[in-house]
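Researcher: Here's a chain I'd like modeled. Treat it as a single chain, no partners, no ligands.
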Amino acid sequence: MLYKILITLLVSLSFLLSGCSVVNSVRMMRANDDIKAIWPEGKPVQQLEAIYIGEKPYIRVTANDNEKLLFLIDTGASFTALFDTKKGKPLAREKGFDLTIAGWGDEEDTYAYQSSLKSLKIGDVDFNDVKVAFISLSTTKYYMRTDESIFDGVLGHDLLRHFSWTFDKANSQINASATPYQLAGNDTALPFDVSLLSKLSIPAKIRFNDTVEVERDILIDTGSRHYMKLSAAYPDNQKISMPTQHINAADFGLSGMTKHKRVTLPALTLGNIELNHVKTNLIPSDDEDDWWVIGSAMMNQFVTIVDYHSNTFVIRPYDNANFHSRYNLAGLDLRKLQNGNLLVKYVFPNLPGEKAGIEVGDVITLINNQETMTLSEDDWIALNARPKQFDMCIEKKSCVKFKTTNINGYSNH
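Model: Modeled as a single isolated chain. Structure tokens:
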């Protein structure tokens, strides 16, 4: 009852402040409140085909009984969304209320509308009459070109909340369970809170330097490919001494590009687990409380469980594996195209890729004599994380050579 009262107050206030766009976003968040998960008898655990692209976890779902789609599992998304891909667009035949979605980025918000699917199946678990936000993703600032569109939608909180999710990237496994997770001996369990906007937060300690450690809640977001994001306003306003070595970078979301600085902070502590030398994105903001997030790059170095049944986040270390941040030493943000080649989304200033003359929009076809059609985004991340000699060939251009090195105080400790 209290939840519904607070939502009602939020809707009323939002209408006064921002009009129908915010009200419709709240309507979309609640559209699947009464939906039921229909489980097959005798199968309380669904072992799903796990597909990891650039750290993010994806699975295949079945829409309207027979259409196979690739969906991102996004604990940072309030509701489920369908995109205007070749497979997704024909499914959005019903057009409901309009939506304006303000996602990550400093550019334009994304136009969408409410639609529905007759059914959506996750493994053998059925959902009927699923309300979705239909997003024209290929026309937003998220993509430079339409052939970047390689997945069909996002599973958000409205459907994720019916499961306990286990993510095990090292063994290419994602499981969804109908029952609460049972803790094992080496598990670290942390309770998570669910905000009115369906964001999940856990307690954490962030060490900024040798003398300053801050305790606060931080969001867990499988839809983020990074290790940790923090508001740059917080250390600025609190006059906290930060690492002097940084690089300038950028990231992309539904609202386009956000430029920011990246540093390495001394430590992040989650329960009894201390992670040292954590690559951190400092996001420009007027609000100290914005962008306190841990993403999949951090979580994927463990088996992680997001148990919506008990509101518990669990970290299970792999045997003989230590946490380490991987760095973009070339300064090239590469993304897969539908034909398998790698598109240059962003070139970091003053790093080897820029100095070699590589530009945003270039299509890389060969890396060290290997066709990029045979390389995944994760293969590129691994290649790029260690000092190396590179020979890259660019479509409609010549090949270039460059060498990467560690950056003292940033990637070298």
